[in-house]
Q: What sequence folds into this?
C-alpha cells in the first residue's frame, strides 16, 4: 500500500484528480442544501452544525475518493505489468520458434551433408576405378579409340568430384564462419573466360558449345574466389541439364550501379514447383542430368549464399522443355 500511495501522491495530476472528485461529491451530496440556500437565504445553512456536517462529508469524500483512485491506479499498474508480461511471453515464444526452426534447418543440413558424403561422393570414385580398369585392359589390347574415350570419362568424373569436394569444403567453411572475404577490383571477362575454359572439357564430352557474350569490359569490386565458385557451379549445372549438341551462353549486361550475369541453356528446363525449392538445401531434391549425371544440389545453395554475401541477387527463369536462364547481379563498386 505504501508503494501505491507514494506512486499516487508523487504525481500531482493524481492529487488534483482526488481534490476534483471530492469537491464533486460534496457538491452532489449537498445540492439540495445549496438550492435551498439560494431560495431561502434567510435560513442559516452555514451555522456550526451545517459546517461540521459539510466538513465531515468533505473528509469522507476525500478518503473515499483517494481509495477509489488508488484502486483504479492499482488496476492500471496490474494491466501494464500484465501487458508487459504478455509481450515478454510472446517474444519468448517467437525466440523459441526461431530457435526450433534453426535447429531443424541445421539438422536438415547435417543430414544432407551426410547423404552427399555417403552416396554422391562415393559414386564418382567407383566410376573412376571402373573406367581406369577398362583403360588398363584396353592399353594391353591396344584399343586407342576406346582408351581415349575412357580417359575423357575419367577426367570428367574426376572434375565433377573435385567440384563436389570444393562445394562441401566451402559450405562447411561458410557455416562455421571460416570462409574468408577478400573483395578487390577484378576484370569480369577474364574470370568468366577462365571458368569457361576449365568447364569446356566436360561440355565437349556432350558436344555442348559454351559461348561468352559481352559487349565491353566490365570491372567489379568483389571477392574473386566467390564469383568463380558461383560461375563454376552455374555453368556445371547448365552442362548437366543440357542435351548433347546443345548450347550454353554466358551473358554479361552492365548497368549503372550493378552488372547482371546470366547463364542460359536450351536444356530440359523445370516447372514452377521445382524452382521454389531450388535454393533450399532442406527441400532441394536433385534429378539426374541428360547423361544420367548425379548431383547433390549443394552447388545452387552455395551460389545463393555467396551471391547474397556479395550484396547481389540470384534467380532463375525456366520453362519445362525450353531450358533455363540463371541470373545473378553484382554491385560494380563496394
A:
Amino acid at each position: 500500500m505504501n508503494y501505491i500511495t507514494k506512486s499516487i501522491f508523487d504525481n500531482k495530476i493524481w492529487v488534483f484528480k482526488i481534490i476534483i472528485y471530492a469537491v464533486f461529491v460534496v457538491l452532489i451530496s449537498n445540492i439540495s442544501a445549496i438550492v435551498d440556500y439560494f431560495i431561502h437565504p434567510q435560513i442559516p445553512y452555514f451555522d456550526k452544525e451545517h459546517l461540521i456536517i459539510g466538513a465531515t462529508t468533505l473528509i469522507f469524500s476525500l478518503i473515499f475518493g483517494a481509495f477509489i483512485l488508488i484502486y483504479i491506479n492499482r488496476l492500471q499498474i496490474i494491466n501494464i505489468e500484465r501487458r508487459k508480461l504478455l509481450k515478454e511471453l510472446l517474444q519468448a515464444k517467437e525466440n523459441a520458434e526461431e530457435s526450433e526452426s534453426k535447429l531443424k534447418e541445421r539438422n536438415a543440413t547435417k543430414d544432407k551433408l551426410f547423404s552427399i558424403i555417403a552416396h554422391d561422393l562415393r559414386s564418382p570414385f567407383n566410376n573412376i576405378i571402373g573406367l581406369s580398369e577398362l583403360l588398363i585392359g584396353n592399353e594391353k589390347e591396344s584399343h586407342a579409340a576406346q582408351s581415349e574415350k575412357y580417359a575423357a570419362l575419367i577426367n570428367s568424373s574426376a572434375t565433377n568430384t573435385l567440384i563436389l569436394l570444393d562445394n562441401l569444403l566451402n559450405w562447411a567453411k561458410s557455416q562455421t564462419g571460416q570462409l574468408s572475404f577478400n573483395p578487390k577490383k577484378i576484370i569480369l571477362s577474364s574470370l568468366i573466360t577462365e571458368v569457361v575454359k576449365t568447364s569446356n572439357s566436360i561440355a565437349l564430352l556432350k558436344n555442348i558449345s559454351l559461348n561468352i557474350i559481352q559487349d565491353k569490359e566490365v570491372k567489379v569490386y568483389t571477392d574473386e574466389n566467390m564469383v568463380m565458385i558461383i560461375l563454376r557451379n552455374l555453368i556445371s549445372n547448365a552442362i548437366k541439364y543440357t542435351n548433347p549438341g546443345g548450347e550454353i551462353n554466358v551473358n554479361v549486361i552492365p548497368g549503372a550501379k550493378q552488372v547482371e550475369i546470366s547463364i542460359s541453356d536450351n536444356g530440359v528446363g523445370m516447372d514452377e514447383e521445382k524452382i521454389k525449392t531450388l535454393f533450399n538445401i532442406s527441400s532441394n531434391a536433385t534429378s539426374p542430368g541428360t547423361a544420367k549425371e548425379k548431383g547433390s544440389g549443394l552447388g545452387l545453395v552455395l551460389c545463393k549464399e555467396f551471391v547474397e554475401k556479395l550484396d547481389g541477387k540470384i534467380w532463375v527463369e525456366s520453362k519445362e522443355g525450353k531450358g533455363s536462364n540463371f541470373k545473378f547481379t553484382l554491385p560494380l563498386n563496394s
In short: The chain has three domains: 2-94, 126-179, 181-334. Residues 2-94 form one domain. DSSP finds ten helices and seven strands in the chain.
